[in-house]
Amino acid sequence: MRITNLLENSSRIIFPLKSDNAEGVIEELLDALKVKEKHKKEYLKAFKEREREYSTGIGNEIAIPHIRSKKEETFKFAIGVSADGVNFSDPSGCKTKIFFLTISPSDRGEEHLALLSHISVLCKDEDLIAKIKNAESSTEIFELIQIKEKNLKKLKEEMQITEGNLKKFQLLFIVLYREEFLKDILSVLYEFDL
Prior knowledge:
Layout: H1 3-7, E1 13-14, H2 22-32, H3 37-53, E2 57-59, E3 62-63, E4 66-69, E5 76-86, E6 96-105, H4 109-123, H5 126-133, H6 138-166, H7 182-191
Parallel strand pairs: 1-5, 3-6, 4-6
Antiparallel strand pairs: 2-3, 5-6
Helix pairs in contact: 2-3, 4-7
């Protein structure tokens, strides 16, 4: 699932965010998604509860606030970028500048996890994140993500051609000594459709 397909264009990228607090950021992003007013309060509450349970801040000034809802049939996705950063309960203690917000349909759990993994892969690209932080418009941010996703697709296609030529079974063992690297390993496996 490509982020640029969910965004469709740069209208769901809020740059710069006006809010200087977490709730205001979520409200701005929900407004970008044109969420029905009757659902907005419910979603705000769900996002707050989600953050209380476990922060969606992942360090490097990035957060991935996400919820699932029975009211949605399609994925809703928006990005917000704050110049000064917002306190968003990040475990690393840093302010958050980039927000990837998603509302996923409740009955599409595997796709929800795949989307979060895809976002995580993009967030590992320090060059991309630096360019997003220094971008001058929402259109520029959309184009940066679009280029990155095209490159990921090309890399996957090249890997599939190589794998097709091998014509033999392969087995991969991973011995994990430090649990904090599990997310990185899973991100790489997802990136190559393994």
